[in-house]
């Protein structure tokens, strides 16, 4: 890991499972502009290393992430209050200044980076996860929670709106009615309420949470083709916005074609020879299966 990071740390085990820790325990891992930048850099750059096969995200100390650090000076969200973009201007120039750093939601930049990573990402929610602490996990592929976890979509209590692309992710995970109820109420959910609402996959005792998440990640990638895992992730998420089955057919046909002449050959040979496969394709060298 890089020594230049102030708010996060990570380790990588022999199976390529990276455990990323939000590391501001004295501040309950509150999300700052610095943490936003460092997490985004991790998911845009470091996590794309072929050394990393999957990522487990958790928090140091007793919290996962207590939400945005509201103690900063000026605009606590790091935004430029001098600009007044129209929707048309923003859509046309969102990746240019002053909009890129002055208007774009920092949490959204992070969740876009998580979503685009061609590898499994698992949240191990070890304690309070409020605001961006909750919404950043929605871009991850699944969420495990400690029995001590508390989760809150509390925008209404702060006079702000859903961020971090959560208006796209949350209703797709739990359904629009449940998403609206949680956002309207802005209540803090218990771990059991989150599980009952299908937000989290499973509940675990605190000392068993991270090992369970790491083992789940390991079961998804060990003995699997890194390219196959990556393309399957792409196919499923792309399919959420496909207008018709033909769109998926075109994508999965190319995915099937390119894997059949790559790791698929080794997979078939290993099956016939009753041995473990030795896949070699890399997530960093995927074939293109989606038209520009």
Automatic annotation (TrEMBL):
InterPro entries, alphabetized: ClpP/crotonase-like_dom_sf, ECH/Chromodomain_protein, Enoyl-CoA_hydra/iso, Enoyl-CoA_hydra_C
Listed CDD domains: crotonase-like (cd06558)
Short name of one Pfam family: ECH_1
PANTHER family in alphabetical order: ENOYL-COA HYDRATASE_ISOMERASE FAMILY PROTEIN (AFU_ORTHOLOGUE AFUA_1G01890) (PTHR43684:SF4), PTHR43684
Family, as annotated: Belongs to the enoyl-CoA hydratase/isomerase family.
Stated name of the protein: Enoyl-CoA hydratase
